[in-house]
Design a protein that fits this description.
By secondary structure, this protein is of the alpha+beta class. The chain contains six helices and seven strands, in the order αβααβββαβαββα.
Length: 205
């Protein structure tokens, strides 16, 4: 069984039927909507979305292109992309961390023995913002993490204006994060990943 077939939250979601040719034969079309882990080949598309989303707001990106490739080579299973007709429209990139709270080293390191998933970035393409896609993608990502036996909690750091968004996604604030980037200060937030045995037993994980 492939990894994709074992994880129901990554299976393609077909939102419309395949088109038919005039002769009645079906013609191949890409899935209208699909969720899957990212690969290093997706790095440029990821960076283009991230750069537009973050530079206009904060002047910098959480991950630069070489860092995106770094994490997609080391731990692609901790990423999730939302594709519509083959085009990336939203994504999350994570890595593993092995301490209670995030530190400056968490920005660049992947700790394979860790049990906390550090969510580095969530970004949505500018043409599909304000449609709830960020919330939907985060929900699917957290469901997916429940299928991973080593994942115990999700951690992230965000600017204060984003705290209400992540609270609506089920995260709780842990307090100010010790990580700083230039003049930016962040709030650290956490979401427990529970129900491993139940999820594996009842969802094919």
């Amino acid at each position: 069984m492939s990894a994709l077939s074992a994880l129901p939250f990554l299976k393609p979601v077909h939102l419309r039927s395949p088109r038919s040719s005039p002769g009645g034969q079906r013609r191949h079309t890409l899935p209208a909507s699909e969720f899957r882990c990212l690969s290093p080949e997706d790095a440029v598309s990821v960076f283009e979305i991230e750069r537009e989303a973050f530079i206009s707001v904060s002047g910098d990106c959480p991950l630069h292109l070489d860092e995106i490739r770094h994490f997609l080579n080391l731990c692609p299973e901790l990423s999730l992309g939302w594709f519509e007709e083959g085009r990336l429209v939203a994504f999350i990139i994570g890595s593993l961390w092995d301490q209670e709270r995030l530190s400056q080293a968490a920005l660049t390191l992947h700790k394979p023995q860790g049990s906390a998933v550090h969510i580095h970035v969530l970004a949505v393409h500018r043409t599909v913002r304000q449609q709830g896609k960020g919330s939907i993608l985060m929900w699917r990502y957290l469901q997916y993490l429940r299928c991973l036996p080593f994942a115990r909690r999700a951690l992230l750091m965000c600017e204060h204006f984003l705290v209400p968004f992540y609270q609506k996604c089920g995260f709780e604030a842990l307090g100010p994060c010790e990580v700083t980037v230039g003049d930016l200060a962040f709030m650290e937030m956490q979401h427990p990943v529970r129900g491993h045995a139940f999820m594996r037993r009842n969802s094919g994980c």
